[in-house]
User: Fold this.
Amino acid sequence: MAKKGNIIVGQSGGPTAVINSSLAGVYRNAKERGFDKVYGMIHGIQGLLDEQYVDLSTQIHNELDIELLKRTPSAFLGSCRYKLPEIHEDHAIYEKIFEILKKLEIEVFIYIGGNDSMDTIKKLSDYGILYGHTQKFLGVPKTIDNDLALTDHTPGFGSAAKYIGVATKEVIRDTYGLAYKRKQITIMEIMGRNAGWLTGATALAKTEDCEGPDLIYLPEVPFDLDKFMEKINALLKKKDSIVVAVSEGIKLADGRYVCELGSDNGYVDVFGHKQMGGTASYLANLINAKTGTKTRAVELSTLQRSASHMASRVDIDEAFMVGGAAVKAADEGDTGKMVVIDRVSDDPYMAKTGIYDVHRIANEEKLVPRNWMNKEADYVTEEFVDYVQPLIQGDYQPMMVNGLPRHLVLDLDAASGKKSRKRK
Assistant:
């Protein structure tokens, strides 16, 4: 049997509670399949361009480390938001990447990320084929936004949805405790940009012991401020406590984000994404000004993607599964593709991995279907809840030390051969 080369893996884009479980899946499967070394890019493709990488065997020594890694939130290797130029625009940058890969004897390049990361896989694969390079390029899905095309769902979404469902119940319980002889309105702002999957997950809070949010607004349908205020005024006549969930990315009919109405923040990242945030604050202030009612804005922000203590076991296991599946696919000759999750059944829930050409996935957005929202587009349907429910099942308890979770931390001293003083 011919000796296998090395694998390099990177993490890109916004972190999740389970992105490191995919990294663990890549490492474990690569070792089981006989690859020599597994390198990790420090801060993704951007770090690789600066020749920043680490031999993961200096970081992961045993099964306990793998289990710690699976329970560690955020990107263990460090992430980035770096857009590679088009192939015809900058030949030199691609030559530099492939020179580094050749020096490290890389056979397989794996990138864990979302839409923009799959754009990176697409470009590197295309360049490699165009210029006769032999490395294989595979994408591993990751995003709490759940907006990657062709996969039933993405690792990271289930845990974020679970956290959002729990947080919504707790916010509602909090508002009930204070709603005595005074009315109050709470606006919850949820991540997701142009896709409403996470915002819709607030409907999970509607259970036997909780009536759930009163209104849910997703970005797939234009937001009407006048109709919104009519709904609020109607609810004020019936209830003392109102909770509304809104996506950070809801837009008016003219295309303006609601968050832009109350802010002059014009920051746009390298992929052309406007910075979100401030939607709940704007709407809370608007309601207060128009009705005089006490309002509160709750922005869950990065807690949605970093709450590993609330991770779903299904999500952790599937993240690990897709990481391993990427190594298997590359070992069997695939390149320029992304691993996907195919749902086999809902009851009992079962899923398996598949693989698709990354050209069909990169830069595409999967949005919530209109028929998974009610007629007024101010709530989601049972079909939506049934889709999400299996993905939040099970717990993956942290390893607790002195009352706090233990995480695996990148140790660059160990990577360089120095005596490490860091504790994990």
Notes: The mean pLDDT is 93. The first helix runs from residue 19 to 32. Residues 6-155+310-362+395-416 form a domain with the Rossmann fold fold (CATH 3.40.50.450).
